[in-house]
Amino acid sequence: MIDLLNSADSDEREPGKPFSVLVVDDELGLLTSLEQLLETHGYVVAVAVSGAAALKQLAENRYDLLVLDLGMPGIGGAAVLDFTIEHRLDMAVIVISGTTSVVEATAAMRRGAIDYLRKPFGPDELLASMANATRKLQLERANRLMRDRVEVSERLHRFLVDNSPDLIFMLDVEGRFSYLNKRVEVLLGFEVDALVRQPLACLVAPRDRDKVATLLRRLAAGATEPQLAEWRFLHQEAFHHDRPTLDLFMVAEVTAVPIISGNGSESRFTGSYLVARDVTSRRRAEEALRQASARLEHVVSASPAVIYSRDPYSSRPLNFISSNVNDLLGYRAEDLLADEHLWEHLVHPMDRLRFKRSQSCEDEYVPTSCDYRLRHRDGSWRWIRDTVRLICDGEGHPVELVGSWLDNTEAQLLSEQLSHQANHDSLTELPNRRAFERRLLQALESARVQNIEHALFYIDLDQFKIINDTCGHMAGDALLLQLSRILQARVRRQDMLARLGGDEFGVLMEYCSLQDAMRVANSLCGAVSDFRFAWGDKAFHVGASIGVVAITADSESSDSVLSAADSACYAAKDAGRNRAHLYTENDIALSRRQGEMSWVARINQALEENRFQLAFQPIVPILGRLEGHHYELLLRMEDESGQLVPPGNFLPAAEHYHLAVKLDRWVVSTALDWLSDNPDHLRNLSLCSINLSGLSLGDVSLLDYLVERLTHQRSLSGRLCFEVTETAAIANFNNALHFIGTLKRIGCRFALDDFGSGLSSFAYLKKLPVDFLKIDGVFVEDIANDPVSLAMVSSINDVGHVMSMETIAEFVENDQILAKLRAIGVNYAQGYGVGKPRPLTELVAYCPRLGLDLQH
């Protein structure tokens, strides 16, 4: 359209620009005189002495005027005149001739000449003719320019109307269609011709027809402002239904203006011009939003949770809070909204740091949840479970924080009670073994991180069994209770004294040198030895044998530390009882080294003699039926007599002396060969899991072997899942990322085994691209009886699902555990309760049982 407008404007003459003239005559003297005359009067003059020269110049240049002699030899003036007509040259032609032929003059005028001058003529006569010609030329050009602009405007208007997304139409004085754009075919399904001369009301829903009539009356009565309305138009399909459905209506915003002919008192209404914009989707969205808001309002009012929102960038804490906050805290919603600092002042001083962290949600896909205390208006404290989620706009910019408060007071008090019971001995009220081992793990971590020294005692009472058997369990309980008080009085306030079971106690002395620890241990032995236990008419003398072990940065695990302390305790008993014995690290290292060195030779010999076997254990879906077989391959070793050796006996030595990679290579190669040799089984295989050690994650040759083999056997790669332990993955993190990423690119999947056993699990989990989380069996085996273990498993399961991972529970030993796992939504189960390990040779026969449904 812009090109069209520019082309029309190009004919408009620049103000002050002189007219150009081509003078054609074969009389050279006359030609020179005419050239001088016209130049003197402001014309730009070009000359041609023949018809051929004139044609050449007309072909190459543009002129406003042509003064043309008709009577020239050769190519005469008539031929030149024909040339201007044939090529539609925009110019005015004045013909001059020495003849007086009327026929000749008439023919020239018919060919488009403006004037005819007979030679000889005077200068004034020529100039007058030239002036007349220029006026006519300007007038014609102006008219043509106006016509072009009108045509362009009409074409532009037609283009805009025909391509408008809106329905545009004109009505006559009777409200009938006189024009419609083609949009009616798209929006309502009607052909344009079918609607011309039809009344507008026929296209409008019956309930809106009165509105149409009212609007048309206002237009006809002389309304000058645009009239606005909203009607429902009927789709063509609606006329085929007695009761049209909502999808056969188009809701439209209508703008109407009158068409007025004439001016002043002679003006009259001749019709209407209307534009209808389709707002159906908007109105439906608004209605859906209204209904959703109503539902939300009902849910909020009926919910026990208090709902609130706040601006993530504003210092004002609350934008909204539901009215049921009054039931929770005794404050009205208006009170909390009016006082900017009331909410924060209600937070318990010890919980304020946790509270502030809960309000710093930065991920719109991961809500944060936090428990803290708020003060009720009556002064009591309520435990609140505050869950906050960040709401972002379509471009990911934070818009609002939405949160909910749930009264968690009763659950918190019950949890504290259960936690106390779970972590304390019911007889002595001392911490129990669970609490002691948890504190021991913390001590091990601090020793490693801070390079400091702690001490641990393992105390076994001497002669306790005699008193218990002689006087009964009540006497034994009384003795334990009294001795626990004696021991507690002689350790530091910051030390942990725990009852580990029966007549065994443990003491954890943090930030304590071995010299001070031995002094305290001897003091405890003396205190117990000095104590006389009286029961009825009997008095008993007891003693305590104590094993002492140092906890340093080199200490390996809680099991190894407790085992060393236990060994030291027995050494104390062997040395005469009622004494303390210090167990040195060298004793443990020597014992382990001797044992493991013997396993190195046995492992190598078993590899040479092909005495390793593979077993499988089913992995079964808890919530549905598995499509295909799913199991884990396990390594078994035959000893020299043909008996199977438990993996726990030889695998630690293999790890320590770098034989694990060799074993992994044997397992992988054997497994791939077996699967390749059983194509029928492979077709029905969903997933085969294979364990890899931490050392294998950094073994380039093993990775190259897997890539090469699986690249050529694509049918295998998509059915393999490699399991790496959480500890191994974290300890070899960069190698693990490379190993996992390389094999995932060719279709393999990965599982993180024993998840939850480490201290840094969650920090690394989101960086490891694994497909499954295998929940550590230490937590799973107790979930039927231990709420803490149940909470741990539930939390790990939730985290896995949030990260789009499926979860597998290990150590599923019975139906009670299975029921708990089903209730919290764990995906798969593995353990003796759903399938025991079996030799690989039995796999094909056992396969029909692998897909059993555990839903019921």
Can I get a quick summary?
The chain is 44% helix and 23% strand. With 856 residues, the protein is an alpha/beta fold. Strands 23, 24, 25, 26, 27, 28, 29, 30, 31, 32 and 33 form an eleven-stranded mixed sheet that branches. It has a five-stranded parallel sheet with strand order 2-1-3-4-5, with helices on both faces.
Q: Main β-sheet: number of strands, strand sense, barrel status?
A: 11 strands, mixed
Give the strand tally: 33
Tell me what the CATH architecture of the largest domain is. Answer: Alpha-Beta Barrel
For this structure, the CATH topology of the largest domain is TIM Barrel
User: What is the approximate shape?
Assistant: elongated
Structural class: alpha/beta
Put simply, the count of helices is 33
Helix content: 40-55%
Taken together, the total number of domains comes to: 5
CATH class of the largest domain: Alpha Beta
The value of Rg in angstroms is 50 Å
Parts with pLDDT < 50 across at least 5 consecutive residues: 1-11
Write the CATH homologous superfamily of the largest domain.
Answer: EAL domain
Mean pLDDT: 85
Tell me what portion of residues adopts beta-strand conformation. Answer: 15-25%
The rounded distance between the terminal residues' Cα atoms is 73 Å
